[in-house]
Amino acid sequence: MPELPEVETIARGLARAIVGKTIRRAEIRLPKMAIAPPGVSFGDAVAGERITGAGRRGKYALIELASGRRLVTSLRMTGRLVVAAPGEPDFPGTHVVLHFSDRTRLGFADVRTFGRMRLVEQGEPWDAALGVEPLSSGFTQEAFLSMLHRRTTPIKVLLLDQRRVAGIGNIYACEALWEARIKPSRPAQALSKPAIRRLHHAVVDVLNRAIEMRGTSVDDYVDADGLRGGFQNALSVYGRLGEPCTRCGTPIVRTVLGQRGTWWCKNCQR
Ligand SMILES: [Zn+2]
After folding, report:
1. Cα 266 to ligand 1 centroid, rounded to whole Å
2. Most distant CA pair in the chain: distance in Å?
3. Which of 56, 59, 105, 164 is catalytic?
4. Which pLDDT tens digit goes with each residue over 90-123?
5. How large is the average pLDDT for residues 247-256?
6. Which SS3 state, helix, strand or coil, does residue 162 take?
7. Reported confidence tier of residue 198, pLDDT bands at 50, 70, 90
8. Is the C or the N end of the chain the one with fewer CB within 10 Å?
9. In the prediction, which pLDDT does 218 show?
10. What SS3 state is found at 187?
11. 199 CA to middle of ligand 1, Å?
12. Using CA atoms, how far apart are residues 229 and 233, in angstroms rounded to an integer?
């Protein structure tokens, strides 16, 4: 499932590949995956639009249009946004295609069809429920401390709550907690101040390292050029059941927390 580093990598690829292009037409093969405001036709609205920017908010990929509208794409479990040259085949499960005037195109593929590309009007507060960006200046140690204050929620469940910190999913929650040597089920309010500072540092560090390696491809994730990421080779706990902890040698365990698989070291995470 694409999380912040994967979507950031996709957005940077889109910024390189499609900014400045003009959408000739949208080909919508599965209508539920291309959503427009009431009374607006997605296809009519985007035809003729020029792409002015690409970015990311939380786990959403953003494509800015010259009219001030934007396309907000949620990739959910298996979504992909991949740029294709003329004659290049579509990825399997391509349900929405933006055809550009230079004959290249952007395909939105999702074999499980949970992903959505939404046309959002200028000024529409579509992201009002999303919390702070963990790589922004707003994610200070103080902000993180007050976020955890008096919360009885297990710390890992809190890290996954997009209303608090936007963009962290299962992979990077597991990795950051291992790096900070914190047991995933600890109630947030039970963490000491030094532990919270370690975790704050670990969240930023693991996200930055994963972006440098262009994301984690443990499943379907590919970037905007159709290429896999590299961070799956640098994972410390995620998906490593029974393998030795790289810090202490204890076999990694998997438990379930908040209905999500959780990988951690029983010896060095307390
Ligand atoms: Zn360990």
Report:
1. 7
2. 59
3. 59
4. 999 999 999 999 999 999 999 999 999 999 999 9
5. 98
6. coil
7. very high
8. C
9. 87
10. strand
11. 16
12. 9
Contact 126, 72 (CB under 8 A): yes
Residues 6+ apart with CB under 8 A from 205: 176, 179
What are the residues whose beta carbon lies below 5 Å from ligand 1 (ion)?
245, 247-248, 250, 265, 267-268
CA of 156 to the centre of ligand 1 (A): 17
| Residue 187 among the catalytic residues | no
Helix (H/G/I), strand (E/B), else coil: 65: strand
* Å from CA of 188 to ligand 1 middle: 21
Catalytic residue, candidates 3, 8, 64, 179: 3
Residue 267 pLDDT greater than 90, yes or no: yes
Confidence tier at 1 by pLDDT (50, 70, 90)? confident
Selecting among 151, 197, 260, 266, the annotated active-site residue is 260
- Among this protein's residues, is 2 annotated catalytic? yes
- Yes or no: say if 228 and 203 are a contact pair by the CB < 8 Å rule: no
Q: How far is the CA of 88 from the centre of ligand 1 (A)?
A: 46
The DSSP string of 55-91 is: EEETTEEEEEETTS-EEEEE-TTTEEEEEE-TTPPPP
Per-residue tokens: 44: 């009519």
Q: pLDDT tens digits for 139-182?
A: 999 999 999 999 999 999 999 999 999 999 999 999 999 999 99
Can 59 be counted among the known catalytic residues?
A: yes
Nearest CA to 81 out of 140, 149, 12, 29 is that of 12
Distance 101 CA to ligand 1 centre (A): 54
